[in-house]
From TrEMBL:
PANTHER family: F-BOX_LRR-REPEAT PROTEIN 3 (PTHR13318:SF105), PARTNER OF PAIRED, ISOFORM B-RELATED (PTHR13318). Residues 621-637 have a biased composition (Polar residues). Residues 662-671 have a biased composition (Basic and acidic residues). This is RNI-like protein. SMART domains: LRR_CC (SM00367). GO terms for biological process: SCF-dependent proteasomal ubiquitin-dependent protein catabolic process. GO terms for cellular component: SCF ubiquitin ligase complex. It comes from the Eukaryota. Residues 612-671 are annotated as: Disordered.
Length: 671
């Protein structure tokens, strides 16, 4: 061996310590040769002590496990090579591709009612694209930052997701809130005040100066159906939204007069305001909204105001509205039970000496007053296009006389539910000054006569007598007319209106004197004019017989169907589905005319019965086919299923037989 020691006891001191063995191979060989000359000495010494050092100890052990896989570099071109703006554009195109795919399916005719009702098609178009976009946030942290980038979430419309968890909504708003200009939370009944406070905090941007208040960039807010909110949480959102233009708070009980005061102070850019059916709001709040602008010497920018069901409205408030809202185009005053004829007169009245370029001077005859009175009246010419006065029970046709010559741009006029207080004179006076009228709702106007229809029927003049295209005749642009329960209107007046109004698309005349020939004439004219979604309502019209409806069944449909998942429970019949029922008409074909009569509803019932019969037949055949190999399957007409408890012991008695194929009885079996 290249190393050796004597046989004496090992010294205890450090100086006499055994030398460190030589680990060099060449030195060990040389030392071994020298030891041969002293062989005698080796024989007289005791046994040597071998050093515990092994040659393997000079090998440096590896620091890593040999079984650990060698890491390979992963190349991610999307993450590593593309700039961030390009990545965001790719995600934008993802949502856009789903919209284009949905539009293409509709244009190609591949979208049917049955496909739309399937659970996999619950979200289509943009809604489906948004869902897929959110799923991509699970890929990685970098993708999550891209998905929730504010450039992709300028609009947050989650109406299609009413059960969206609040943490998911908060996650989107917390990362993209500063970029959002639109937020639509319609139908989110579980949205709590605390959650709205958190969302409001995330929507705010940091102020430029330390003394300024943090505000949002919101321009459109829709909280319809968010019934769990409180007044404080709502006001906190409105105070921090100075750029707000469109606000919908329909049906919220937390809205009160203070809400209108805050809107007047902090939201001066409002263009559209919907406060319909807010139970704790009255005319005092509207007065605060108007007086606030008047005190500043300003006029409101409102173009749309909906205050259906407002209480305690007075002439003074209506006069202030007319002065402070010169740009108003849509006004909904339906179900305001305190509204009088004088209130509408105050809305359009101006002092005679006031020289307003948007006003007109009228005589007593022109506004429906004493013809012998020489008094002049100045009236404001409004920009109203849509006026709703339905179910204002204190109004009469005098209200229409007060509006004559003041609404020349009127297109939609609703005055339903007035009853016998609505007569011809005032109504005709106003309609004669509305050449652009497109829709009129006079339901339940029992005392109107043929004179109203004649005022809406255009006269076919010769080319030399025709007026310029800029001022059409009254009735030339009429598209929708509702005269249900107008029992004094004759069939001849309806027929003349149908033939002379070239754009008439919808006629609701239930409980009138309409006959079957008039109904057929409407259907044929609507089909020849190629009108989409045309319809006629003739329920409880005694002159309309079953044969009259059957004769035009090839051109009609009983309901106005549409292809969407929301229409699943309505079970519309679509010819594209090829159900082969043998009954019914295509309810989703917009070229067919919708005819609503008693006999039309029978068609709907016939389709439902045919579907039930077909479903039961298929179920019975499938059950019979599953036990066809059983030799004893036809011995007993038992109705219980073969997989019922105990059915394995008596498969013949439990299997369905051929007698069950056309048997309409289904459900529990009486033992």
């Amino acid at each position: 061996m290249p190393w050796k020691t004597d046989s004496k006891a090992r010294p205890k001191s450090g100086a006499d310590c055994i030398p460190v063995p030589v680990l060099s191979y060449e030195a060990g060989i040389a030392k071994g040769l020298d030891s041969r000359s002293s062989a005698r000495v080796l024989r007289t010494q005791g046994r040597s002590y071998s050093c515990p050092v092994s040659p393997l100890d000079i090998v440096i052990p590896p620091t890593l496990d040999v079984f650990t896989p060698i890491p390979l570099p992963v190349h991610r071109p999307f993450d590593d090579l593309l700039p961030r703006e390009v990545k965001l554009h790719v995600f934008k195109l993802l949502v856009l591709s789903h919209e284009q795919e949905y539009e293409k399916r509709i244009a190609d005719g591949n979208w049917t009612a049955l496909k739309a009702s399937a659970s996999r098609n619950r979200w289509v178009g943009k809604d489906k694209g948004v869902r897929e976009l959110v799923k991509f946030s699970r890929v990685s942290k970098s993708w999550r930052s891209l998905v929730f980038d504010g450039q992709l979430w300028s609009e947050l419309a989650v109406t299609a997701f009413p059960k969206l968890p609040l943490p998911a909504l908060s996650r989107v708003v917390s990362q993209s809130g500063a970029f959002m200009s639109t937020i639509d939370l319609t139908g989110h009944t579980t949205l709590s005040p605390e959650s709205l406070f958190k969302l409001n905090h995330s929507l705010c941007i940091s102020p430029a100066l330390p003394d300024n208040q943090a505000v949002t960039q919101l321009k459109n807010i829709n909280l319809q159906g968010c019934t769990a909110l409180t007044t404080r949480s709502l006001h906190d959102l409105l105070i921090r939204s100075p750029h707000l233009e469109n606000l919908c708070l329909k049906g919220l009980s937390v809205v009160n007069n203070t809400t209108c005061e805050l809107l007047s102070t902090h939201c001066r850019s409002l263009v559209s305001l919907n406060l319909n059916r807010c139970l704790n709001l009255n005319a005092g709040g509207l007065h605060s909204l108007v007086s606030g602008a008047s005190a500043r010497g300003e006029r409101l920018r409102l173009k749309e105001l909906r205050i259906s069901g407002l209480k305690y409205i007075t002439d003074t408030i209506m006069a202030a509205m007319g002065k402070a809202m010169p740009h108003l185009e849509v006004l909904d005053l339906s179900y305001t039970r305190d509204l009088h004829n004088s209130a509408l007169d105050a809305f359009v009245s101006l002092p005679l000496e006031e020289d307003d370029p948007n006003s007109i001077v009228l005589t007593s005859r022109e506004i429906g007053r004493d013809p012998g009175d020489v008094t002049k009246y100045r009236r404001r010419v409004t920009r109203l296009r849509h006026l709703s006065l339905s179910h204002c029970l204190l109004l009469t046709d005098i209200a229409c006389s007060n509006l004559a010559h003041c609404v020349p741009r009127l297109e939609l006029f609703e005055m339903a539910g007035i009853g016998g207080h609505l007569n011809d004179e005032g109504l005709i006076r106003m309609l004669n000054t509305t050449p652009h009228i497109r829709k009129i709702d006079l339901e339940d106007a029992m005392d109107i006569s043929d004179a109203v229809l004649r005022s809406l029927t255009p006269v076919n003049h010769s080319p030399s007598q025709r007026k310029s295209p800029e001022t059409p005749q009254v009735g030339q642009e009429l598209e929708h007319l509702v005269v249900s329960y107008a029992v004094n209107i004759t069939n001849e007046a309806l027929l003349g209106l149908i033939r002379n109004c070239p754009r008439l698309r919808v006629l609701e005349a239930d409980s009138t004197r309409m006959t079957g020939k008039t109904l057929q004439e409407f259907v044929r004219l609507a089909h020849s004019r190629r009108m989409a979604d045309a319809g006629v309502v003739a329920i409880d019209c005694r002159g309309v017989s079953e044969s009259a409806v059957t004769d035009v069944s090839k051109l009609t449909r009983p309901r106005l169907g549409w292809r969407a998942h929301e229409a699943k429970k309505l079970a519309y019949l679509d010819a594209r589905d090829d159900e082969d029922l043998g009954v019914g008409q295509d309810e989703c074909d917009d070229k067919r005319v919708v005819v609503k009569t008693f006999y039309s509803w029978e068609t709907v019932d016939a389709v439902r019965v045919a579907r039930d019969r077909k479903r039961k037949t298929r179920r019975a055949l499938n059950s019979s086919g599953s036990s066809a190999e059983d030799y004893f399957s036809s011995k007993s007409p038992g109705r219980s299923k073969w997989w019922a408890p105990g059915g394995r012991r008596r498969s013949g008695n439990n299997s369905p037989s051929l007698l069950d194929v056309n048997n309409d009885r289904d459900g529990c079996t009486i033992m």
